[in-house]
Write a structure and sequence with these properties.
10-stranded mixed beta sheet; 8-stranded mixed beta sheet; D-Amino Acid Oxidase, Chain A, domain 2; FAD/NAD(P)-binding domain; 17 helices; 35% helix; alpha+beta
Amino acid sequence: MSLDRSERLKTLGGGQKWDVVVIGGGATGLGTAVEAASRGLRTLLLERNDFGQGTSSRSTKLVHGGVRYLEQFNLTLVLDALRERGYMLRNAPHIVHKLNFVVPVFSYSAIPYYGVGLKLYELLSGNLSFGKSELLSVAETTQRLPTLRRDGLKAGILYGDGQFDDARYAIALMRTLEDLAGVALNYAEVTGFLKRDGKTEGVVVRESETGQRFDIIARIVINATGAFTERVLQLDSAEDATPLALSQGSHFVLTRDFLPGADALMIPKTDDGRVLFAIPWHEHVLVGTTDEAVPSSSTEPRAKATEKSFLVEHIRKYLGRTIAPSDVLSMWSGLRPLVRKGNGATSKLSRDHEIVRSPSGLISVMGGKWTTYRKMGEDAVSAAVKVSGLRAAPSRTKELKLHGWQEKPSSDTYESDLVYGCDLEKITALSAEDSAWDEPLHPRLPYRKREVIWAARYEQARTAEDVLSRRTRALFLNAAAAIQAAPEVSRILANELKRDETFRLRDLENFLAVARGYLFTS
């Protein structure tokens, strides 16, 4: 099913009663909505900004069990995540793929420690294993990681994990929801709750583009707003608080020559105890992440000076290069909503999730990580069914193929094209409608103008930022190139959405204001 925006708004204003309303269009909300719709429940998802705009498009692009959680002895989380990793690859092989990681070892005593840990990691994945771990010689390690600093290197350990494009996975979930007869709407903010005798029976929604207000009736409402969970709880009850602690993770994107091989680098413990990755991604290199506590949520978090210094120093330490500002093609930060249990550094907090029921009947799903999004959704919907008395079919999302599902095509297909799966042929066919749409968006970006058209028609892209940040990953790959491409993107989008010049210029300026924050400054 592919509704246009006017049709989606009609479903909001039709007075129908929904079984489930999900607030939040990130990984957790989208996964929850897909879970509900796949179990036969009439499902509506509402997102106040764009799908995946927050944390869910700003991850380290890993589909993983979490090697470091073994050290914390959180075997339940690791086992859950390893299983979910396998389901993600099986259900979305056009977006998720296996990736080899190499852990360089700089002391002989660390070889058995990391070797045994990574072997256990492999064994815990069972028949969903992403590859065997093995000990590498110094020569084998440097062959796989040609730019790795060699001083003091004793060995390397190879293991398999997963990688994906987070924002594109979120869009695939949105399309899957609508394939299942659910409805998803971005730029639709929940501003309040409808209640009777203190019990939640729906939400009040404001649609951002028109300012229209809708009263939406639902049997159950699920709050899946991640870092913004507390704001929704306060709408429900001024007395409600959330046991969340917010952590910020920042990343650099560099040119491919910083890590020219096919494998990723993983440093399991830096001097201050953090984990660091350098990963090939869309023909670039992604380096991250940091782990800094922050006091409050933000739509556009920015890297702190300490985070920039941390990444610069560790790139120098492990890749042997002192980076200049021009080496950082893009820089971004994302927030992690962590369930707080006691005091301590955010890097030590678990990525487990919790399902909480408020006195009003509102269900909130908190914490978690991208890889366990499906399990979080299953648990949230099961709790909602139990509370509301809804009749629902058993969960089937472990086997549910996501929109665009396709076995990975030949290796000569660009990674940026793979994420469309079986839709790629339809996107390519748009060029027959207008040959100009076959032109590249920018010489330094792997995208074509037809992808803007596709995003507007079929993926609910409403702004230049939607297109350049999440439908394509232009802003995340090369901020300067995305800024240069933005005027043409805004022109194509305004024409496709039948908007006037005033709207186009405002949209363009809004994007530029955001995009400047992705440029590296020392």
